[in-house]
Specification:
Distance between the termini: 71 Å
Largest sheet: 7 strands, parallel
CATH superfamily of the largest domain: Queuine tRNA-ribosyltransferase-like
Radius of gyration: 26 Å
Number of domains: 2
Number of strands: 19
Structural class: alpha/beta
Strand order of the largest sheet: 7-6-5-4-10-9-8
Bound molecules: zinc ion
């Protein structure tokens, strides 16, 4: 019954892995489409046919349903929903957050989730709104943690329990919650109550709270970003180490006539073309979907296709070591996503500890690339080099008299001995014509080399064009210009 997670490939803090639940295994990152048995635009069986291995549904809806309650208790969820993959159930915390209260206790909902044969059970946590003040957040977190402890105690260490990490908008509370959930031994940890942040495009806050939770969760924990359903933010959140997403968005957007793409959504009413390769879009015109009685279903199918394809693209990027490039591409779809991405690159020193050492390539995509993990890691590595006594860092690669060693220069990384010319990242990085941001960052590399080797005298040979940046960033070193 127990839940186990294994990471097979990683890039930044993102992982391609294997989540095992009882005898079932799913590939991660994964999308769990949200199924509401009362409004099935797309059936679980169709979703399974699209390659989806896991879905999520709401135990509270089943427990309150005259139509489904007894059937689910008798036959089990898999039979009722006609889905043979992994089924996760949410407890009803969502209803709690919307309506203020639910008429079931923690143990009751968990027993019910067990009795309907759910594969992953979620205790009745309290999803504290980001608008809540610190006192409220602390109080609600304490209740959540009591309920998680009660769940472990009642159902034992092998029960397939999720341990949600709450803590509202406060990074230290998210850290504390992550640690407490880890101490209780939960291998499956949703980061909860982030939907309002995403709805309000507060991606900086999203990065802050997810990074805080990740700081204290063990690397072995499978992390589910609760309620994250828009494909435009999957790459960013995967890069932080989120493994699972659940999406009601495909259906909710369809109901509102919204057509998803990986860089945002369009109103179907405004589309004259359908810029997508899925079956729906290649067999219908925008006008045909608009006027079809099946409009919501067709849109839901398209939205699901786009969402699932993005997950596949992310998995490939992780295997290839090109996730930063994908994050960069996606985060240009909205200024607030870009803000979240910029905050994430400022966390590069923390991410650097988990990022892989070698990748297929480094594509420079503008200022944001300057503080990527590969650059930070390279510049930290400079302290371990053994430069000679009198070193020239030659921007143009040309030798000059009077030096016992020549280093070359590749921005945004910095100085390198020519033996490293073919190795990652120097040899596998593609950069366009030098710009100020990358040269400035590269100069920080020279400074790192100089600071860590006071016994060496370092001189920089550059053209007049870069002289002032070099003097600003590497004061104290000699500069030669031609
Ligand atoms: Zn489509």
């Amino acid at each position: 019954m127990a839940i186990a997670f294994e990471s097979l490939y990683s890039d930044i803090a993102g992982r391609c892995g294997k989540l095992t639940v009882g005898r079932k295994t799913i590939k991660t990152p994964a999308l769990l489409p949200v199924i509401n048995p009362h409004l099935n635009l797309v059936t679980p069986k169709e979703i399974r046919g699209m390659g989806v291995e896991a879905i999520i549904t709401n135990a509270y809806i089943f427990s309150q349903s005259k139509q489904y309650r007894e059937q689910a208790l008798l036959e089990g969820l898999h039979k009722v929903l006609d889905f043979d993959g992994v089924i996760m159930t949410d407890s009803g915390s969502f209803q709690l957050s919307v309506y203020g209260q639910v008429s079931v206790s923690n143990i009751e909902t968990l027993s019910f989730q067990r009795d309907i044969q759910s594969d992953i059970w979620v205790p009745l946590d309290i999803p504290t709104s980001p608008a809540s003040d610190r006192k409220t957040t602390e109080r609600e977190l304490a209740i959540t943690m009591e309920r998680l402890a009660e769940a472990r105690e009642t159902f034992g260490p092998d029960a397939p329990l999720a341990g949600p990490v709450q803590g509202g908008i406060f990074p230290d509370l998210r850290e504390e919650a992550g640690k407490a959930v880890a101490d209780l031994g939960f291998p499956f940890c949703p980061v909860g109550a982030v939907v309002p942040l995403m709805e309000q495009y507060r991606y900086r806050d999203l990065v802050t709270v997810v990074m805080a939770a990740k700081r204290t969760l063990p690397r072995s924990a499978c992390v589910h970003l609760f309620g994250a359903g828009h494909p435009s933010m999957f790459a960013l959140t995967t890069a932080m180490g989120c493994d699972l997403f659940d999406s009601a968005a495909y259906a909710l957007y369809a109901k509102e006539g919204r057509y998803m793409t990986t860089h945002g959504s369009y109103k179907l009413a405004e589309l004259t073309e359908l810029p997508c390769a899925c079956g729906v879009c290649r067999t219908h015109s925008a006008e045909e979907i608009r006027s079809s009685p099946q409009r919501e279903r067709l849109l839901a199918l398209h939205n699901l296709h786009v969402t699932i394809a993005e997950i596949a693209r992310i998995r490939q990027a992780i295997v290839d070591g090109t996730l930063w490039e994908l994050v960069d591409e996606r985060c240009r779809g909205h200024p607030q996503l870009l803000a979240g991405y910029r905050l994430l690159t400022s966390e590069a020193p923390a991410l650097d500890r988990v990022d892989r050492v070698s990748k297929r390539r480094f594509f420079y995509r503008g200022d944001e690339s300057c503080t990527r993990t590969e650059v930070i890691r390279y510049q930290e590595m400079l302290a371990r080099f053994r430069p000679g006594e009198n070193v020239l860092v030659a921007f143009d690669g040309g030798a000059r008299e009077g030096f016992d060693e020549i280093y070359l220069f590749k921005p945004p990384f910095g100085p390198f001995p020519k033996e490293l010319k073919e190795t990652f990242p120097i040899g596998q990085s593609e950069i366009p014509e030098w710009d100020e941001a990358m040269v400035r960052q590269g100069c920080r590399g020279i400074r790192a080399l100089a600071d860590s080797h006071p016994e060496s005298t370092i001189t920089i040979g550059c053209s007049r064009r870069w002289e002032s940046i070099v003097r600003q960033e590497v004061s104290g070193c000699g500069v030669l210009t031609e």
